[in-house]
Specification:
Layout lengths: L8 H6 L3 H9 L2 E5 L3 H13 L3 E6 L16 H5 L4 H12 L4 E6 L7 H5 L4 E4 L4 H14 L3 E7 L2 E7 L7 H4 L11 H4 L3 H19 L9 E6 L4 E6 L26 E6 L4 E6 L9 H8 L4 E4 L3 E6 L2 E6 L4 E4 L4 H11 L3
Parallel strand pairs: 1-2, 1-4, 2-3, 4-5
Antiparallel strand pairs: 5-6, 6-7, 7-8, 9-10, 10-14, 11-12, 12-13, 13-14
Helix pairs in contact: 3-10
Bound molecules: zinc ion.
Zinc ion binds next to α8.
C-alpha cells in the first residue's frame, strides 16, 4: 500500500513506527454511528489522517440549530434539507480523496446494526442516547469489534474505550443505567468546545488502536467539565463485572430484542417521533408518486434523499427506505395514524 509521505509527513514523524504505522491506519475501516457534533469532529480527524475506509451512519438531516457545533455543515446543507451523512461525505471527499467514504442514511437498530458495522476494525460512538450505546455494546461484544464511547451534555463530557475480552464493557461501566432519557443537549444545551475536546480524546484513542500501538492506551473512563475546570478519571480495574450479562454471559438484550414490523421512537427533546419499517433496507419508495399525492394536502418539497410535507401542525420528512420523522408531536399514536394515512401500512 502506497503512503503519500508528503501529505502525512507531520503525522508520520509523530507515529511510533513512521510509515509502517501510517500503512496500518490506511488498511483500517471505522464505522461512526451518529454524524452530529461528535461524529463530524471524529470523521474530520480520521479522514484527514488517511484512514482506509470510513462509514458515516446517520438517520437525520442538517438543521439550523446544528451549525453551532457540527463542524462539517453549513447553511446550504440546512436549506437543502441534506441528510447529515451525505453532507459530511461531500465535505470530507474534497478534504481527502484517498479515503473510501461510505455515507449511510439510515436509522441504526437491532435489525441492521450487525450488517452496517460488520468488517469494521472499530466503531465510534457519535450518538446521543443510551439505548443505541447499549446496542453498539451488544454488537461489539458479539462480533469482537472495539468501540469508543463518548457522551456530551452541557459543558460535561465522558469517554471510555471498550475492547471485547480486555476491558470492562459498557454494561459493566453503567450497570444501573437504563435506556431512558436523562438530561440531553436538547434540554440543557451543549457547549461546542466540550464536544470537541472529548471527540479529540476519542480520536486519539482511535489512532492508538488503529496503528496497533498499545503502550499508552487508556484503561479508565475520563469525565470532565470544561466550564468548571473539573477533570476526573475512573480506573477500569474497579469496573469489571464478573457477572456482566453482556460481556460475560453473552446475553445481548438490546440486539436480540424482538420488535414488531415497525420501530417507533421519540426523538428525545426534539418534539418529534420517528417510525422505521423493519426488514426492508432497500431504497424502495416512489417519492415522486407520494409527492403528487401529498401536494393535494399540504406544501411538499422533494430533495434527492427525502420528501418533506408541512401538514396541519406537523412537519413530516420521509426517506426512501420508508423511515419517517414527524415533527410537532411526542404522541406515538398520532404519529402512527399519520404514518398510515400518508404512507400506508
Ligand atoms: Zn460487561
Amino acid at each position: 500500500m502506497n503512503v503519500n509521505v508528503n501529505k502525512y509527513s507531520r503525522q508520520i514523524l509523530f507515529w511510533p513506527n513512521g510509515q509502517e504505522s501510517q500503512q496500518l491506519l490506511q488498511s483500517k475501516t471505522v464505522s461512526i454511528i451518529g454524524i452530529g457534533a461528535l461524529g463530524t469532529a471524529l470523521a474530520n480527524h480520521l479522514v484527514r489522517a488517511g484512514i482506509g475506509e470510513i462509514r458515516l451512519i446517520d438517520r437525520d438531516f442538517v438543521e439550523e440549530s446544528n451549525l453551532q457545533r457540527q463542524m462539517l455543515f453549513d447553511e446550504k446543507d440546512v436549506n437543502s434539507n441534506k441528510p447529515k451523512a451525505i453532507a459530511a461525505n461531500e465535505k470530507l471527499s474534497i478534504i481527502n480523496s484517498e479515503v473510501k467514504i461510505i455515507p449511510i442514511v439510515n436509522d441504526v437498530n437491532n435489525g441492521n446494526i450487525e450488517s452496517l458495522v460488520s468488517g469494521s476494525d472499530l466503531i465510534l460512538d457519535g450518538t446521543d442516547n443510551m439505548e443505541t450505546r447499549f446496542l453498539i455494546n451488544d454488537v461489539s461484544i458479539k462480533l469482537g469489534i472495539p468501540w469508543i464511547y463518548a457522551g456530551v451534555v452541557h459543558s460535561r463530557a465522558m469517554t471510555a474505550t471498550i475492547i471485547p475480552g480486555i476491558t470492562p464493557c459498557f454494561a459493566c461501566l453503567f450497570p444501573n443505567v437504563g435506556s431512558g432519557h436523562g438530561e440531553t443537549c436538547d434540554t440543557v444545551g451543549v457547549l461546542s468546545t466540550a464536544v470537541h475536546i472529548i471527540a479529540s480524546y476519542q480520536a486519539t484513542e482511535a489512532f492508538k488502536l488503529l496503528i496497533e500501538h498499545e503502550t499508552y492506551r487508556r484503561e479508565d473512563m475520563v469525565q470532565l467539565d470544561i466550564w468548571k475546570n473539573d477533570y476526573e478519571t475512573f480506573p477500569f480495574q474497579y469496573s469489571l463485572n464478573p457477572d456482566c450479562p453482556c460481556c460475560r454471559k453473552k446475553q445481548f438484550a438490546y440486539l436480540d430484542n424482538k420488535t414488531s414490523d415497525k420501530l417507533v421512537s421519540s426523538l428525545c427533546g426534539r418534539d418529534a417521533i420517528q417510525i422505521t419499517p423493519l426488514g426492508n433496507e432497500e431504497e424502495s419508495l416512489d417519492l415522486t408518486y407520494l409527492k403528487d399525492k401529498w401536494s393535494k394536502i399540504g406544501k411538499v418539497e422533494q430533495t434527492p434523499f427525502l420528501l418533506r410535507l408541512n401538514y396541519e401542525d406537523y412537519q413530516i420528512s420521509l426517506f426512501k427506505t420508508g423511515r419517517i420523522i414527524i415533527k410537532g408531536t411526542t404522541d406515538t399514536e398520532i404519529a402512527k395514524r399519520l404514518y398510515s394515512t400518508l404512507v400506508g401500512n
